[in-house]
């Protein structure tokens, strides 16, 4: 396997007496997609939250390109595109303004062009002037995904990205993630959709009762 | 088979049944209810006595020391406050309904064939009574400070209470009929308030006409008649209100009540912000602009252009320090200027508030917390600086021109620091150990959250009254507070 871009070693997370994650190890190389699967409550989202810094692991650490993954560092956030379940937006910025802001904050030189392409791909062109509160839950999910694709990135961390998407949306997502791999980016994907995982992921990590690599 | 015909229950029967369920789940004993009532009454009497004592002392001081233009401003004060109360009554009534039903009632009861008007009328009566009571309570102080006699004060309070009721009545009728009358009236009252404030700030308060007791009584009687007519018309119109109209505000009151119960003013701000932008479906998108952190400043400028009300309000408030200076506030004008900065500042910081509250948004942007927050402070900070600079003439009577300019900058820093403290406040932590109180376990930060922002205001504004050294100290504290609040360690 090529050198790992993301390295996770010994991540442990306990809630009271209950250990959710116990010494989880994980590597994701550039151009590789790794799926994390398991039943509800097995710690998939917790693992991602610990990796991206939304939660604090009791033990273990993650590194991105050899640098300890501290999400407070701008250098890390520059390389790491995250779409978790906590979909939050500026209430007073429209769909296209959100994407334009993210692209420009990342100093994306051809921001306008990239935003136009992505907004067309995710099917939000017709609602580009609408405020987030007026979008359906599926459209909000598309907007969150689009925000990850309008900016420079080396690693994509996605928590159930297929949730709330329609059939066409899931098909587009699969193609997009394959294109991400082909472009040499790493993908870490938590999903409950076996077809999506099988289509996109090179390896699968199982959490819960049947834990292990597959 | 013959279809059985059921009679629709009356609203009174439905309310009686709900009351019966609630009583069946009551957890308090009568002794506890009486004890709580006694404590509440005792608190009201004690706080009322303290407030009354303060007002009467201030009145004695004003009687002894107020001369010249101070007397004119003092005479205009009751009218200023009365207009402000009318504006507040209209604003709050339009925000909260004023005709509203809880979401559960909206979903379960208003869809039934029970008389809708009869279900809503008790709530409307309570809202009206509350509006009158609060207006009278707020107007007590200006009535006493304005130099009214007991009879004049009584007439003023009756007129003020009736005006508040009339405003709420107009708001209710506008809501039921979905008209814009209340909106236009709000602008009209705001313009009148601004005009009167201008007169007070420009030595023209003497232009406020003196009203004889007979005229006052006649106006009060007229206002009472108008308010009563509006109350009854709104009451009669309740049956025609649609669930769609009630739905606009159904969730707002419970959300605000929840935020108030945890004394989380920041959450109230979030609720109101979400409501403000939840109503507009589409905006004219504006893209482009600089790259990197200036993109955030550019977005704040777009926000200001899209929703300029907070900036217009701040600009209008610039008259208040002038009125205070006219009334002889002297060096204490800086307290007024900085307090207005704190009161007007948070409304301009919606972008800052969202990134502070929402970690996932902050994670999307490749910026340090310090850069992220400072970028979002640029536009409101500039507005507060301009506001403070516009008050330089109010400082000139007590300070040389260079010192007055420096003092205005120190005022701006104080306002920015206090606003940042307010906007970046964290919600109460219910996971941490709580303080035991008669009301149950209370998170340690709850009571402090009420003083959030005002604490920094006091620490930074008070030193400015004590010369150049105090001004320097204030600026150092303000810069220190801002630096800490935007740093990683405050996250």
From TrEMBL, chain A:
<dbReference type="InterPro" id="IPR003439">
    <property type="entry name" value="ABC_transporter-like_ATP-bd"/>
</dbReference>
<dbReference type="GO" id="GO:0005524">
    <property type="term" value="F:ATP binding"/>
</dbReference>
<feature type="domain" description="ABC transporter">
    <location>
        <begin position="6"/>
        <end position="214"/>
    </location>
</feature>
<dbReference type="InterPro" id="IPR003593">
    <property type="entry name" value="AAA+_ATPase"/>
</dbReference>
<dbReference type="InterPro" id="IPR027417">
    <property type="entry name" value="P-loop_NTPase"/>
</dbReference>
<protein>
    <submittedName>
        <fullName>ABC transporter ATP-binding protein</fullName>
    </submittedName>
</protein>
<keyword id="KW-0813">Transport</keyword>
<comment type="similarity">
    <text>Belongs to the ABC transporter superfamily.</text>
</comment>
<keyword id="KW-0067">ATP-binding</keyword>
<keyword id="KW-0547">Nucleotide-binding</keyword>
<dbReference type="Pfam" id="PF00005">
    <property type="entry name" value="ABC_tran"/>
</dbReference>
<dbReference type="InterPro" id="IPR017871">
    <property type="entry name" value="ABC_transporter-like_CS"/>
</dbReference>
UniProtKB/TrEMBL annotation, chain B:
<feature type="transmembrane region" description="Helical">
    <location>
        <begin position="372"/>
        <end position="392"/>
    </location>
</feature>
<feature type="transmembrane region" description="Helical">
    <location>
        <begin position="79"/>
        <end position="100"/>
    </location>
</feature>
<keyword id="KW-0472">Membrane</keyword>
<keyword id="KW-0812">Transmembrane</keyword>
<protein>
    <recommendedName>
        <fullName>ABC transporter permease</fullName>
    </recommendedName>
</protein>
<feature type="transmembrane region" description="Helical">
    <location>
        <begin position="38"/>
        <end position="58"/>
    </location>
</feature>
<feature type="transmembrane region" description="Helical">
    <location>
        <begin position="211"/>
        <end position="232"/>
    </location>
</feature>
<feature type="transmembrane region" description="Helical">
    <location>
        <begin position="155"/>
        <end position="175"/>
    </location>
</feature>
<dbReference type="Pfam" id="PF19814">
    <property type="entry name" value="DUF6297"/>
</dbReference>
<feature type="transmembrane region" description="Helical">
    <location>
        <begin position="308"/>
        <end position="325"/>
    </location>
</feature>
<keyword id="KW-1133">Transmembrane helix</keyword>
<feature type="transmembrane region" description="Helical">
    <location>
        <begin position="129"/>
        <end position="148"/>
    </location>
</feature>
<dbReference type="InterPro" id="IPR046264">
    <property type="entry name" value="DUF6297"/>
</dbReference>
<feature type="transmembrane region" description="Helical">
    <location>
        <begin position="457"/>
        <end position="486"/>
    </location>
</feature>
<feature type="transmembrane region" description="Helical">
    <location>
        <begin position="331"/>
        <end position="352"/>
    </location>
</feature>
<feature type="transmembrane region" description="Helical">
    <location>
        <begin position="181"/>
        <end position="199"/>
    </location>
</feature>
């Amino acid at each position: 396997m090529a050198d790992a871009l993301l390295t996770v070693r010994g991540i442990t997370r306990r809630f009271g007496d209950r250990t959710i994650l116990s010494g989880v190890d994980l590597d994701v190389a550039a151009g590789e997609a790794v799926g994390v699967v398991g039943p509800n409550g097995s710690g998939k989202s917790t693992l991602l939250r610990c990796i991206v810094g939304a939660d604090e692991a009791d033990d273990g650490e993650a590194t991105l390109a050899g640098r300890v993954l501290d999400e407070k560092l701008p250098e890390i956030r520059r390389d790491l595109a995250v779409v978790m379940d906590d979909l939050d937006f500026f209430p007073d910025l429209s769909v296209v303004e959100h994407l334009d802001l993210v692209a420009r904050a990342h100093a994306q030189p051809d921001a306008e062009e990239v935003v136009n392409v992505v907004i067309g791909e995710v099917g939000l062109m017709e609602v580009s002037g609408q405020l987030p509160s007026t979008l359906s839950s599926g459209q909000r999910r598309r907007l969150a995904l689009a925000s990850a694709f309008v900016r420079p990135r080396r690693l994509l961390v996605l928590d159930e990205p297929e949730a709330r998407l329609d059939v066409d949306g899931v098909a587009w997502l699969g193609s997009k993630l394959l294109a991400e791999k082909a472009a040499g980016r790493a993908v870490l994907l938590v999903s409950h959709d076996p077809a999506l995982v099988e289509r996109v992921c090179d390896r699968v990590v199982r959490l819960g009762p049947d834990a292990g690599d597959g | 088979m013959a279809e059985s015909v059921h009679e629709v229950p009356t609203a009174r029967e439905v309310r009686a049944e709900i009351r019966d369920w609630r009583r069946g789940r009551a957890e308090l004993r009568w002794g506890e209810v009486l004890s709580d009532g006694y404590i509440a009454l005792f608190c009201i009497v004690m706080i009322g006595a303290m407030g009354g004592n303060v007002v009467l002392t201030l009145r004695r001081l004003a009687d002894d020391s107020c001369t010249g233009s101070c007397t004119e401003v003092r005479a205009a004060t009751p009218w200023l406050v009365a207009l402000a109360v009318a504006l507040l009554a209209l604003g709050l009534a339009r925000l909260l309904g004023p005709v509203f039903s809880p979401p559960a009632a909206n979903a379960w009861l208003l869809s039934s064939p029970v008389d809708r008007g009869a279900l809503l009328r008790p709530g409307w009566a309570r809202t009206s009574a509350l509006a009158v009571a609060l207006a009278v309570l707020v107007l007590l102080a200006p009535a006493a400070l304005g130099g009214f006699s007991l009879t004049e004060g009584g007439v003023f309070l009756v007129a003020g209470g009736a005006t508040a009721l009339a405003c709420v009545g107009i708001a209710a009728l506008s809501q039921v009929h979905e008209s814009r009358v209340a909106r236009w009236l709000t602008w009209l009252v705001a313009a009148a308030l601004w005009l009167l404030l201008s007169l007070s700030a420009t030595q023209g308060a003497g232009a406020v006409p003196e009203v004889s007791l007979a005229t006052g009584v006649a106006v009060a009687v007229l206002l009472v008649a108008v308010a009563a007519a509006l109350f009854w018309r709104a009451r009669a119109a309740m049956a025609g209100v649609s669930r769609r109209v009630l739905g606009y505000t159904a969730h707002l009151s419970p959300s605000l009540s929840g935020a108030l119960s945890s004394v989380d003013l920041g959450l109230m701000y979030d609720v109101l912000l979400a409501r403000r932008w939840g109503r507009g479906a589409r905006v004219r998108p504006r893209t482009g602009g600089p790259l990197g952190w200036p993109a955030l400043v550019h977005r704040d400028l777009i926000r200001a252009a899209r929703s300029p009300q907070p900036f217009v309000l701040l600009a209008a408030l610039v008259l208040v320090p002038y009125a205070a200076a006219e009334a002889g506030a002297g060096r204490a004008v800086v307290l007024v200027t900085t307090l207005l900065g704190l009161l007007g500042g948070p409304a301009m910081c919606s972008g800052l508030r969202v990134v502070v509250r929402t970690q996932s948004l902050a994670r999307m942007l490749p910026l340090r917390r310090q850069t992220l927050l400072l970028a979002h402070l640029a536009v409101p900070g500039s507005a507060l600086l301009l506001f403070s600079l516009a008050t330089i003439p109010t400082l000139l009577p007590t300070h040389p021109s260079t010192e007055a300019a420096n003092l205005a900058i120190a005022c701006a820093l104080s306002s920015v620091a206090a606003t940042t403290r307010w906007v970046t406040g964290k919600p109460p932590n219910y996971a941490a150990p709580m303080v035991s109180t008669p009301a149950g376990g209370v998170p340690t930060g709850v009571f402090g959250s009420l003083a959030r922002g005002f604490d920094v205001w006091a620490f930074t504004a008070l030193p400015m009254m004590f010369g150049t050294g105090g001004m320097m100290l204030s600026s150092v504290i303000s810069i220190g507070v801002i630096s800490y609040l935007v740093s990683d360690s405050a996250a």
